[in-house]
């Protein structure tokens, strides 16, 4: 009866269970959530070449 609903993490594309076990949904983790928010904020404020954001991105891509 309880069919697990799975969505894709918008940041890394990993499958994420859509239930109370995943409070960070639709993101797979707090980390991906922060990365996505960071990307959004970086675009919004147009910080050129922010090294912290660049670092988070490359690290996440290589991990998944
Ligand atoms: Zn993710």
UniProtKB/TrEMBL annotation:
Keyword Metal-binding recorded: yes
InterPro entries linked: DNA_gyrase_inhibitor_YacG, Znf_NHR/GATA
Coiled-coil stretches noted in the UniProt entry, renumbered to this chain: none
Cofactor(s) needed: Zn(2+)
Pfam families noted in UniProt: YacG
Co-factor binding details: Binds 1 zinc ion.
Keywords of the record: Metal-binding, Zinc
Binding locations of Zn(2+): 9, 12, 28, 32
Top-level taxon of origin: Bacteria
PANTHER family assigned: DNA GYRASE INHIBITOR YACG
Chain's role: Inhibits all the catalytic activities of DNA gyrase by preventing its interaction with DNA. Acts by binding directly to the C-terminal domain of GyrB, which probably disrupts DNA binding by the gyrase.
Family according to the record: Belongs to the DNA gyrase inhibitor YacG family.
Subunit structure comment from the entry: Interacts with GyrB.
Protein name per Swiss-Prot or TrEMBL: DNA gyrase inhibitor YacG
Gene it is expressed from: yacG
């Amino acid at each position: 009866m309880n069919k697990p609903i799975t969505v894709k993490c918008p940041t890394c594309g990993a499958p994420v269970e859509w239930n109370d076990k995943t409070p960070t949904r639709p993101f797979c983790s707090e980390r991906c959530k922060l990365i996505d928010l960071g990307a959004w904020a970086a675009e919004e404020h147009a910080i050129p070449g922010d090294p912290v954001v660049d670092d988070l991105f490359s690290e996440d891509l290589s991990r998944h």
